[in-house]
Amino acid sequence: MAKAALAGRRSTVEDGPEVLEITIPSRINVIKFLFLLVWLGVWAKGEMWAISEILFKTDIEGSVFLLFWVTGWTVGGCFAIYVIAWMIGGKEKVLLNGDSLSVRRGIFGIGRGKEFTLVHVSNLRVSPVLDSRATPASDALSWFLALWGAGGGMIAFDCGGKTYRFGIGLDEVEASVIIEHLNVPA
């Protein structure tokens, strides 16, 4: 199996006799990374305060509101931790063999993937993530994750009446080179 880093690119290509494997490591956006670290410090302080208020306060109405608030606050904190973990240890692996295309996203080797039968894959293309005004409400989470560099992707394809994406954080040139390597019949 020949392994090659694409010149001036983050991704690597391993071209074996039966499988083509493309690995795309995540990219750290220093500004977002530092912002999230500072935000998590403030978040932790707020989380500890709210939990102590819920546990030790006798005001039931205030505790019910704080319970609701801390639930949303916890979701926000988990999202920030996920984005930081993705920036540090995220990786996409794209595997192409004779009859399937699979895309796997993982953080430190833990993640999930999806396999697509190649005869159903069509319209492999470079497709920048749409802005929020043009994104349907059903794709709002994908758009939001793409905004933070933890979802979406520059490469899109259609399969079974749905569009799928990979190539998070790629620029258009690198995405085009990856599409050339995949060489999936249209």
Detailed description of the structure:
- Helix 1 runs antiparallel to helix 2.
- Helix content is 41%, strand content 28%.
- The chain is of the alpha+beta class and 186 residues long.
- The strands form two sheets. A six-stranded antiparallel beta sheet has the order 1-2-3-4-5-6. It has a three-stranded antiparallel beta sheet with strand order 7-8-9, covered by helices on one side.
- It contains four helices and nine strands, in the order βββααββββαββα.
- Strand 5 and strand 6 form a beta hairpin.
- The chain has a domain of 93 residues.
Helix count, per DSSP?
4
- Topology as a string of helices (H) and strands (E): EEEHHEEEEHEEH
Q: Mean pLDDT, nearest integer?
A: 84
Report the C-alpha radius of gyration, rounded: 20 Å
β-strand percent reads 25-35%
Largest sheet: 6 strands, antiparallel
The overall strand count is 9
Distance between the termini: 26 Å
Side-by-side strand order of the widest sheet: 1-2-3-4-5-6
Shape: elongated
Low-confidence stretches: none
